[in-house]
Amino acid sequence: MSTDTKLSVAEAQKLASRGLRGTLGASLTDPLTGQVAEADQFIIKFHGIYQQDNRDRRDEREHKKLERDYSFMIRLRIPGGDVSAEQWQGIHRVAKQYTTGVVKITTRQTVQFHGIIKAKLKPTVKDFYALGLDSIAACGDVNRNVMAGVHPSLSPFHKEVHDFADKISTHLLPKTQAFSEVWLDGEKLVGDTPEPDPLYQDRYLPRKFKIAIAIPPHNEVDVFANDIGLIAIQENGKFIGFNVLAGGGLSTTHGNSSTYARLGSLLGFVPTEKTLETVWQIAAVQRDFGNREERRLSRLKYTIDRMSVEGFKATLEERLGFKLAPAKPFEFTQRGDIYGWQQDVNGLHYFTAFVENGRVIDTEGYAIEQAIFDMTAQNLAGVRFTGNQNVMLTYITTENKPAVQTILEKHGIAQRELSKIRRDALACVALNTCPLAMAEAQRYLPSLISKVEPLLAKHGLLEQELYIRMTGCPNGCARPYLAEIGMIGKAMGEYNLYFAGDQSGQRLNRLYAESQNEAQILETLDKLFAQYVAERTKSESFGDFIQRVGTFLV
Ligand code: SRM
Ligand code: SF4
Fold it and tell me: What is d(CA 10, CA 276) in angstroms, rounded to the nearest whole number?
């Protein structure tokens, strides 16, 4: 167990927060500034809210001796990524009223909204809450939004497994009523002792905590990248439980070799009825053994490596009072979303549509925002967000399918053709809102892909399945460490190039070249595509090929 002698500042802030209340009440009503008090900037994250400023305007504001252009980002908690038609209509309305107006689908299957000024935070949260949506624990040192595989056609028990995302999320929610008190004018805490919380107690977890459920053969959630990964297992056509992975996580810090990306370790199998207890206890072991002194080294991956996988598992089993069964066989074959129409076992229809970098905006010939609006206005479909930042229109009856198809055609969605590389690409938000960005990502990747596509065409590879991912810093929000081609921002216009992830998300890529500008990236890709075409073995993916022949820096 870590000693409490050199606790990080964040630990002190959690302990002093009176169950995540901090001084948010006073901060929100302070008219003299657009920000909240320093300690509240950390505590507010547990409410799903981040203080940010427009980085494009920093120099200008500083020059004019003005406070930074502060605003807030809200991230909703939507386990499994499902919202109803009515909720989407509400989301659309709230986004237009209080935010930049853009609904942004994240790589963890939820949505976030930028540009909310402090005075509008409370009305925004209230309006979302009235729609049955909240942002509790969407960020902070707690369990975050639980992901679940989205594709109903691939498994007869899809819904049963998908529903687990919500069960887990609810089971691991903090018990504090601070969210209600701060945002919804709920009853005020009397005294300083917050509501008892057996899991989070008064210090919460040492760091953020993430859970995803994958439904083989599809791994679009990147289950190995999570603190807890659950792989749904079927036997004789029945869903019986999960293989449990623990200790996945991707973030690194440039130049700090004590930080590293790690795939989750396979601990064993748990039956369905013991799953909630198991995830709770894994979080509790991390609570008690995680590093509370150095936040860079506090994720579960580091705790497990310190304790060893066997040591961690033994502690877990002792607390559970039972042993995990040996892991069951599973196979992943795919990660990219299945675009277009599919159907579930009950005959309901689903349509997956591309949303570039998760930004739901209309572009020339592709009015995705309008299409979703029209469909949900007529209650023809629900909406599901995918971990690939795309949108799925859900639960469409056979009777309503033609009307949906008409809307898809009218707005250019049905007929849109994309190269495979663009279709499966991911980029994180980065500039202009992310305070940690060292380089562009979502504002740049689309144009870079437009330059990579001709290279692929030149080498006859346009039909090639190829996972490319970019982030503005090494935190890895678009999971670039699991891409065949990963680009990680180092400075403006410069990226570290990583190659050789596999196609199913079970192998991390490796550092190939540092601080590469666009010309260097394109030159390297041109050379490697040529080599790939000349030397690949039959059906060898690009990532597997580079893994076999590449020369890496690390
Ligand atoms: Fe992330 C921090 C955006 C998925 C690892 N991430 C941030 C912040 C909040 C910056 C900050 O701390 O102030 C970014 C907000 C940018 C903005 O302006 O909106 C941010 N992360 C995102 C999103 C929106 C990227 C996207 O374009 O979709 C994703 C939101 C997910 C969600 O809905 O909850 C997002 N972040 C991820 C992932 C991918 C995943 O979880 O599958 C990772 C890597 C996996 C992992 O956690 O190991 C990830 N984000 C981080 C980290 C590094 C954590 C660590 O272990 O050190 C940070 C920095 C931090 O926590 O200190 C971070
Ligand atoms: Fe920001 Fe870095 Fe995450 Fe991109 S990877 S959103 S730049 S923290």
Answer: 28
